[in-house]
Every structure is written in structure tokens, then in C-alpha cells.
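Reader question, answered in our methods column.
A reader sent in the components of a multi-part assembly and asked whether the whole thing could be modeled at once rather than chain by chain. We filled in our standard form and ran it. Here is what they sent:
COMPLEX SIZE: two components
ENTRIES:
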Amino acid sequence: MSDIAISVQNLSKRYRIGLKEQAPDTLVGAMTSWLKSPLANYRQLHKLSDFRDDPLDKQGHELGATPDDVLYALRDVSFDIKKGEVVGIIGRNGAGKSTLLKILSRITEPTSGRVEVHGRVASLLEVGTGFHPELTGRENIYLNGTILGMRKAEIDRKFDEIVAFSEIEKFLDTPVKRYSSGMSVRLAFAVAAHLEPEILIVDEVLAVGDAEFQKKCLGKMEQVSRGEGRTILFVSHQMGVVTALCQTSILLERGAVAHRGKVADVVPAYLKSGIQETGELFWPATAAPGNERVRLRAVRVLCGGQPAADVPLSAMVRLELDFENHRPGLHLNASFHLLDKLGNCILATGNLPSASLTPDQWGGHPHPPGHYRVACELPAHFLNEENYAISAFVVSNVNCIEAQAPQCLAFRAHDDGAMRHEYTGGWCGMIRPRLPWFSERLA
Amino acid sequence: MDATAPISSPRPEPHLVIEASHGWQLINWRELLHYRDLFYFLVWRDIKVRYSQSVLGIGWAVIQPLFSMLVFTIVFGRLAKVSSDGAPYALFSFAAMVPWSYFANALGDSSGSLASGQSMLSKVYFPRLILPMVGVVSKLVDFVIALGVLALLMAWYRTLPTVNVVFLPLLVVIMTGTATGAGMWLSALSVQFRDIRYGMGFGLQLLMYAAPVVYPASMIPAEWQLAYALNPMVGVIEGFRSALLDTNPMPWAWIGVGALSAAALLLSGCLYFRKMERTFADVA
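And here is the structure of the entire assembly that came back:
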């Protein structure tokens, strides 16, 4: 018996993404394409499940199988995981984490490559899969447990423990639809926490539930991994959790393994990866994010009129983006997200008329084709001493994203002492706004 | 409280290889057997949830065939004077409605099973074949209840079943096999083509007239009867009538042809389902 739990060799997964449809520009064209649409629909639907080894060679070009509609979610991924290892899988959205977990838990098949798994696997990509609102808590424990791969006898044995863990004894025979959402999450978790596989695959499911219960689940997972030597694969965006729970980590970038090693080495690499710290970011016309209507050309963090990667807390910070509009009359507005260093969104703002403090001539109004520059100001004495990142968006019709640059720029705010004349200790909080205060003597 | 006992595993360590599968494959029985508890709970959930929060509850299992029978008796029996092979028309049509409404409901459920179980499909692994089979099995409860009502109706008309009633289980096997086979085909197709979902209710309504529900199979011209019996439900329905109402001798030729085509449907459905299942999570 080897000490390898999971061995992944040259794993690739290819998806077909939706093909671009040709929009007819005449009434006759529209009618004929409408008449032809069942056939076109059939081809397109059929192709969704067509994962032949090489679509380009076998299907040729007549069906429009260009590389544009083939997306590699994973490309040639290889790694080994030892027994008892607790591995955090990290990476940005779209890096292939979920695809990897789905392949490892056999929900979807790889396009090529091979995985060998030694031991009983259970995967937890969602809490409460198969929960039925009409069934009681007791019934759902059995249903959910068997869905997760437990046998009835096993659930019988652990039933009391599951109920105790979930803290819902009183409602055991109440239909789950009458539960509060917190209660059903607790119940679902309690079932999942009592899986006893040799290998456990967990997606970012700890993000639900109240803080105290999350802690309890983390404790349970830790106990399971440390105490009982189980292999765990854990996907999370919360670097704090990954660092606390895992010994090693795999960083995925665009479907490939970018780093593999100790958590302490991989997490910083992740936090730095892909983010520019220059205060300014340009895209050439050919590589600009967006579509044929709108392209994002530049994003800047400005302080005192200059691009800055490090700003003082006492200064006003200006977030700026440049975009091109190619379609006359699009109702566009810009939006920024301010993120903390773990990628959590601190605030989101946009230049829609009711959402901006100052009247913006263009925000949400029709844009003739042209170049535009949009900016918003973060007031002085607003940020805390932290690392921040921003995401920039250009949106049409209030909620359709045309161009986006997620987590594209990072900057740091440093304390220049303007609010430190009295208190000099640690100052908690993601932001540190200077707020109006009022006191009065009541007696 | 949390001191879980360490797992003792006397079994050999399971070893699993995940890679792209190719070609055709049949059922993995061992795996299905391992997941039999899940199958059991899904069937049970289906039964329990189906009529919850309804006043008539399980009564709905009876109402549907009973009212169809009433309408048929008035329209086809009284007004159109369709032959009923000598039996009272009400009995004649109800004996057909019992297997037919089972088939229609089971197929409807089964063909939609993957679509309604989509959230499960994309979140957890289990043998996908379980889903279309759940509806086929859980609808047997309704079938048994309707069969009870048929017995009451026969008592009312003072009709005694023939000795051929011992062959009913065989007919039930053909009936469930047909529903399973067709359910596998349609559920696998409906993942990709939503049209199946939209066309199902209406298609089943039309199909009813392709089976001898409101008329006797003897009305079909003799030279076409064997081809007609390729629809497995022909043999099943006429078999029910012969065994219970003594309308004709047991139609073994039809039952035989129907059994063969049911077997073909089951085998091909299973193969197609297994071929398509690897893409369910990607396409659904």
C-alpha cells in the first residue's frame, strides 16, 4: 500500500462555451433565420455534448468549431497528494478549482488524463444537496446522508451525534420548510461533518451559516484531519481559513498548477499574483477587456493627480477608468469594487444618478461612440492601514456587465498619523472613516 | 461527545481510477447495489412528497384513472358505441386505465427526473441511472391502489378474474420494463433537448390512442396486429383484460412481441443513458 491518496496525471478538461450567434440585420433575414432556427438549435444543442478528442480535426470548420468556443478549464494538471495531507486549493475565479473538484468527485469526466484515488472518497460541494422542504429534519438526515454516500446503517449509528451537532433536537420532526435558513444549514452541515471517508473533498461551503457554527465546523474538520489522519482537499477564497487548516496548498492559474508547496509559500504567491501594484494599468486595443461594444482601456489609482500604489490615509484617493464605446446610444455607467487583501468586497460604487453624491453628466445616460474617462473619489480619512485591490466594470442598462477587470490593481494605504494625535494603538476595521460625533451631558 | 471512534476498515482499500470513458457500457451492478439505500430513500421521498399538503392525498392516485374511465364510458361506450369485447365498458376501460395511467405517470416522472434532479447531478456523484428508475418504482404504489379500486369495481359488476390472473406479475414486469427503457431514453435526451419536457404531457395523451385503452385491440385489422403489438403496452393492456375480465383468451402472441420490444427498449435505453451520462453535469 503506497502512501499516495490521490495521484493526478496530465489532467485536462475542455468545455464548449456558447457559440456566437449571427444576428440577422433584415426582416427577411430575421424570418428565414427564425424558420431555420430549429435546425440551428439542434446543431448547437447537439454540439454541447460533443466532446470528441479533437473537434478541430474531426469536425472541420464547417460547423464553426473555432478555438474560440473551446475553453480549457484545466490543462495538463499533475500532482500527488499524500495520505493524511490537508491541501488547500486556491486560485482566482475561473482558475479551474471547481472543475478540478468536480472531476475528483466524479461529477464530470476529464477530457484527457487520469486520476488515481486510493481510499473511500466523499465530496461536499454544497451543503444540503437533495434536501426536500416537505420532509422533516429526521427524514432529510437520512436522505442527505445517503446522497453523500453513507449507508443507512451508518446513519443509524451516528444519528444521535448528528442531531446533537446540529442543535435542532426540538425540530427534528418538523418539515424543513419551516426551518429558518440557519437551522437548515446547521442540519445539513451536521450530516456532512459526520461523513467518515478516508478522503474528503470540500468546496467553499463554509461560507454559509453563522459565525459561531462556522467555527464549530472548522473545529470538526480540524479534528477530523489532525486527529484521524484523513486526507482533505479544501477549496476556499478565505486565505485565513486555508492557512489555519491546511499544511500544503496548490495554486491554480488559468487551469494549470502555478504553485505547489507549503501553505506559507503558496498563499503569498496567490495574493500577489495577477495584481498590478503600479497604480496604473493600460490595455492595448486588441487585448482590452470587454466586447465589440465596450472596451476597458485603463484603470488608475490616483493620489494627488499621480498614479500611486501607496497612498497616505489623510489624502483623497481617486479611482479612474478609461473606456471606449463603439455602439451609439448605449446607456453606460462605471462601477468600482474595493476589495480587501483576501478578495472580500468592502464596498461597491457606481456613477448612477441616485448612487453618486455629485451629479455625473454621463452616468447611466446614453453614450455616443467615443472615449470616456470616469472617476470616483474615496474621501480622505476613509481607508485603514491595509492592502486593498480594486475591480473595475463598465455596465450597460444598469446591470449588464460589458467590460470588467476584476482585481486588477492593488494599492496600500499607510497611516500618516493624521488621526493619531491621541490614540496610537492598533486600529481594527477594514476602513477607518472619520465620522461626525456628538456628545451631551444628560445629568 | 465528539470522540468519534476511529474507522476500522477490514475491507481492502478501494482504488478508483478516473479518466475519460469511451464507447458503450452497461450497468455497473456492484455500484448500484452499493447505492441501494439512496435508491430506497429517493423512492420513499417521492412517495411521501407527492401528495403532501393535498386534501385528497393518495386519493389522487385513484381519481385520475377513475374519472378518465367515466368520461370514456360516456363518450366511447355510450355515445360512440365502441366495442368492449363483451365486458361492461366501464370495466373494460378501467382495466386498461390501470396499467396505462401507471405507464403514463411513470414515464412522465422518469423522463423529467434528470431535469428535476439537476441540482443533485451537478453537486454529488451517484449512479445516474438511479434517477429515472425512482419514478418507475414509486409510481407502483399508485398502481397497486388503482388495482385495488379495479378489484372493487369488478366486485360491483360481479366479475370474477380468470386463472390467468397468475400471469399479472409478468405483465407488470413488461410494463415497468417498458417505462424504465423509455424513461432512460427520454430523460437522457431531455438533458440536452428541452423539447422533450415540453412535448411530454401532450405526447403521452396522443400515445394513449396508440394503445388499446378506449377500444379493443381486436378492432385493429388482423394483418397489422403483430406490428401494432410492438407497442409493449398493447400486450400488457389486452393481457390485463383477458386475465381479469375474460374478454379473450390470453393474447400470448402480442405479449411475446411486446416483451421482446420492451427488452430492446430497455437495453438500448440503458446503453444510450450510460453513453450520455458522462456529459450530464456539463450540459444540464
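What stands out: Confidence is low (pLDDT under 50) at residues 53-66 of chain A. Chain A touches chain B through 54 residues (CB under 8 Å).
Send us your own complexes using the same form.
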